[in-house]
């Protein structure tokens, strides 16, 4: 008697590795819920190689931000009750934070909505600062107004420890003392910062070692030292061939809108050979808008024999990986006759198709300042201004609109946002917070 695989309940299991732990789960459930996994499974396996995820020896390795405990909590929600046996309790707030984090990362809309539904601000046993930090990190808009309101109502002032909990750190606990005029001349971000009046009865930050200006967490001491070597006229200069150093300058000058150092960094960053892999160089080019690297970077990836792997996709992101795959496939569509075996494209110039697919341009684009990029003293002053907009515990809808205009303006109607800015008297005109 002939046998047929049931089209609904003949399940393919896939092996995933998170940290040092292996998981084996139905592939169909991941595909049905998550477009990221669906696209990942659609990639054809390499020729003469075992497909990743098909066995314990060749698992799909999930990227480092994913933790075992978070993934287990996601599976408890993702897998049906009859299959797994237990569900995630509604009051397990740490569990639902894990679900929120991974569902946002992997675009699992249904689970993301379920996590938001189960996460009630008033029931979470954390401080107002911790809850606001979670809200900003995972874009829980309903928590942002409630969190800032709770901070505004408390008697204690906003302090540096609160700011650190909100994701702002010192430059790796390293103090720098530099001319203010240099920072003002080169960066509108610093210029606007220094133009803000200090809070009353508080020592101005930046005037002493005891009260420094605290720069946000993405800024590393090594990167900042490299930028200072470019900004300050005396002392050792950066070598032209030091690509790591010029990447640091590019990153910080872009963050703080320093157009001259940004342009100088671009001029000194020639596409290198023998420095990092092609995937890493292309990722840097796209992250920091080094447009001169895009064509040679994609060309290098398109010419190599090895196909685009899951690891490449994790570094580049799915959209870029698919674009690179399209460039590689153009080798076939342009008339080359290929057979199974080693792919030979070492001498092929893919430049025309790269320009068509990636459309690289040389336009200088500097991002707008967002609340997470602001140095700590700006965040503290904005919070202090919000606290001063009301003198009682009766926080009006307009007060809420002021909070939203600072931290989450996207949820406001334009007219409300404008009214809140005018009525509150906050110094938002100095910042482009979007």
What does it look like?
The chain is mostly helical and 434 residues long. Helix content is 51%, strand content 3%. It contains 22 helices and three strands. It has helices spanning 27-33, 35-42, 68-78, 81-84, 93-105, 109-118, 128-138, 141-153, 160-165, 180-186, 188-195, 221-231, 243-255, 259-268, 278-288, 291-303, 310-316, 318-333, 351-358, 376-388, 397-407, 414-424; strands spanning 13-18, 21-26, 60-61. The protein has a three-stranded mixed β-sheet. The protein is flat and about 90 Å long. It starts with 12 loop residues before the first strand and ends in a 10-residue tail after the last helix.
How far apart, in Å, are the first and last alpha carbons?
66 Å
Strand content range: under 5%
Number of strands: 3
Any idea what the shape is? flat
- Write down the secondary-structure element order: EEHHEHHHHHHHHHHHHHHHHHHHH
Class per helix and strand makeup: mainly alpha
Query: Helix proportion of residues, in percent?
Result: 40-55%
Largest sheet: 3 strands, mixed
List segments where confidence is low: pLDDT < 50 over at least 5 consecutive residues: 362-382, 388-396, 409-434
